UniProtKB/TrEMBL annotation:
Family classification: Belongs to the WD repeat rae1 family.
InterPro entries assigned: WD40/YVTN_repeat-like_dom_sf, WD40_PAC1, WD40_repeat_dom_sf, WD40_rpt
Positions annotated as WD repeat: 53-94, 94-136, 228-269
PROSITE patterns registered for this protein in UniProt: WD_REPEATS_2, WD_REPEATS_REGION
Record keyword Repeat present: yes
Keyword field: Repeat, WD repeat
Organism: Mucor lusitanicus CBS 277.49
SUPFAM superfamilies, per database record: WD40 repeat-like
Protein name: Anaphase-promoting complex subunit 4 WD40 domain-containing protein
SMART domains noted in UniProt: WD40 (SM00320)
Classification of source organism: Eukaryota, Fungi, Fungi incertae sedis, Mucoromycota, Mucoromycotina
Length: 330
């Protein structure tokens, strides 16, 4: 019998917009609609201790860690990205856009370069030692989701557009295409080998896409996060396991499933939560899986009063059976 999932102590009082674990320790960063970013330390026994917090001047939408785990960067509705230094406890503004910042990611190859994606239809690259961006990529539409792995950066924008950037030439869009899914993009997440990405939409579908044309035959899409009465739910987040390369999908139906893209099968499903799953994250070793039960705004602001009261962060102890790839079904 598996142990029940742990509930994180003192969660944000308002919507939880993202989750990110430190690449060096079991510390979880959590941005929220209450204008704050909170850090929680996960103890070896699964309990959590609130470690620190800092504020923006508006709701915070995204968070990422520096590769050495010494600092956290977050972006939000105040059109700013802020960096919090764990050693000093100080936060400073490190980036600015003309509209809210929806995504912020440190680049894998250059640890001190930050990419920020905004509703001002640009991705800006920042050397954190300099107040001006070192490069800008024009997207043509608002950035909704962004991820990077190795030399690959993928940005999903409004109008179902996908922009693929090779980071050896970061200001030029290497390839632009339309999402394989018919409806608005909610999330995009890169494979751990950097050869492609998974994309999730508002109508319960996931697309598995390879960048190299030679691997186009491996691309496919599948349905998920639907119920017996044909209700269709948004796929709110996709997280790849850091070792196995299998992945999770989290839905507005309150369910989380683990999948293997190579054998095209579902590996496991967690028990249904009482609310919407807004976002997810694996820790650096892949043995802790965090998920936030929080309103995801897919039904608009009028439902926030009834459904926006639950804000919980849960920690699930991951077993190999749930996430290890399996041989393809014959």
């Amino acid at each position: 019998m598996q142990a029940p999932d742990f509930e994180v102590a003192s969660p944000p009082p308002d919507g939880i917009s993202a989750l990110a674990f430190s690449p060096q320790a079991d510390i979880l960063a959590v941005p929220s609609w209450d204008n704050a970013v909170r850090l929680y330390e996960v103890q070896p026994n699964g309990t959590t201790v609130p470690k620190a917090s800092y504020n923006h001047e508006g709701p915070v939408f995204c968070v990422d860690w520096s590769k050495d785990g010494s600092s956290v960067v977050s972006g939000g509705a105040d059109k700013a990205a802020r960096m919090y230094d764990l050693a000093t406890g100080q936060s400073t503004q490190v980036a600015a856009h003309d509209e809210p910042i929806r995504c912020a990611k440190f680049l894998n190859q250059q640890g001190n370069i930050l990419a920020t994606g905004s509703w001002d239809k640009t991705i800006k690259y920042w050397d954190l030692r300099s107040p001006q961006p070192v490069g800008v990529a024009q997207l043509g539409e608002r950035c909704y989701s962004m991820d990077t792995k190795g030399d690959l950066l993928v940005a999903a924008t409004a109008d179902r557009k996908i922009h693929i950037i090779n980071l050896s030439n970061p200001t030029t869009v290497y390839k632009e295409c339309i999402s394989p899914l018919k409806w608005q993009t909610r999330t995009v997440s890169c494979f751990i080998d950097g050869k492609g990405y998974a994309i999730g939409s508002i109508e319960g579908r996931v697309g598995i896409q390879y960048v190299d044309e030679k691997e186009a035959a491996k691309c496919f899409s599948f349905k998920c996060h639907r119920d017996e009465t044909k209700n269709v739910y948004s796929v709110n987040d996709i997280s790849f396991h850091p070792t196995y390369g299998t992945f999770s999908t989290a839905g507005a139906d309150g369910t989380i499933s683990f999948w293997d893209k190579d054998s095209k099968q579902r590996l496991n499903t967690l028990p249904r939560s009482t609310g919407t799953i807004a976002c997810t994250a694996f820790n650096r070793t892949g043995n802790i899986f965090a998920y936030a039960v929080s309103y995801d705004w897919t039904k608009g602001h009028q439902f926030h009063a009834t459904e926006g009261q639950v804000n919980k962060i849960m920690l699930h102890a991951v077993t190999d059976e749930e996430v290890k790839p399996r041989a393809p079904k014959r």
